[in-house]
Amino acid sequence: MNEVQLRQQVVELARSMFERGYATGGAGNLSVKLADGNFLTTPTGSSFGRLVAEELSVVDKEGNHLSGMPPSKEVSFHLAIYANAPDCNAIVHLHSTYLTALSCLESLDHSNAIKAFTPYYVMRVGELPVVPYYRPGDPQIAKDLAQLAGKYRAFLLANHGPIITGSDFLDAVDNAEELEETAKLAFLLHGKAIRYLSDAEVTDLKGRGK
To answer: 6, 169 in Cβ contact below 8 A?
Structure first.
């Protein structure tokens, strides 16, 4: 897929996420690794529902703005993940309803915010470590994510929202959708006797891929 096609894919899938309530207003941001080693990202304050392909930002691996509209102030944590996760080629950061609600709970297991109870959560995401709360744009977010990247496919920023990676942009979006649905199910099942997957079942699923 060339850059023109990638830009169009970002616009179309971002609009789809917006229309289904995965993003509101100017919240959230997206990025994709380009063939030349630079990164295509959503502009600062942009709405997923109103992106323009030609206006998407391009930055280099140091975060220097090369073209398009000014990039999101959170592009630094995208770059930290790319630098430490060689298999990551796209990132979706959402303020989606159920995952953001989950990020605000005090009782979270910071090593894994959602214990596995469905196979596709395991195959697409695996585990969901929690990054402590920092104000949006704080450089410490990037530092913490740099330590986790390469070991996990998704992360939950406390009192903020999820970050999901993928082998390409479509994969990252699919992973994000699966993760949001898993969080929704977790809230629907709250207070009920949940049949969690066993360690052996989780291990078996991780070996099978998506």
So the answer is: yes
Amino acid identity for residue 114 in this structure: I
120 in active site:
yes
pTM over 0.90: yes
Q: Is 74 a catalytic residue?
A: yes
Question: Minimal CA–CA distance to 177: which of 128, 130, 126, 121?
Answer: 121
Angle between helix axes 3-19 and 169-188 (nearest 10 degrees) is 20
Name the residue among 32, 28, 30, 23 with its Cα closest to residue 4.
32
Task: Scan for tokens 């430490």, then name that residue.
Answer: 84
Choosing from 3, 12, 62, 120, the catalytic residue is: 120
Tokens 């691996």 map to which residue? 61
Per-residue pLDDT at 61 exceeds 90: yes
User: Tell me, what's the pLDDT at 206?
Assistant: 85
* CA–CA distance, 61 with 80 (Å, rounded to integer): 9
Per-residue pLDDT of 6-41, as tens digits, reads 999 999 999 999 999 999 999 999 999 999 999 999
pLDDT of residue 210: 66
Given the residues 74, 127, 178, 180, the one annotated as active site: 74
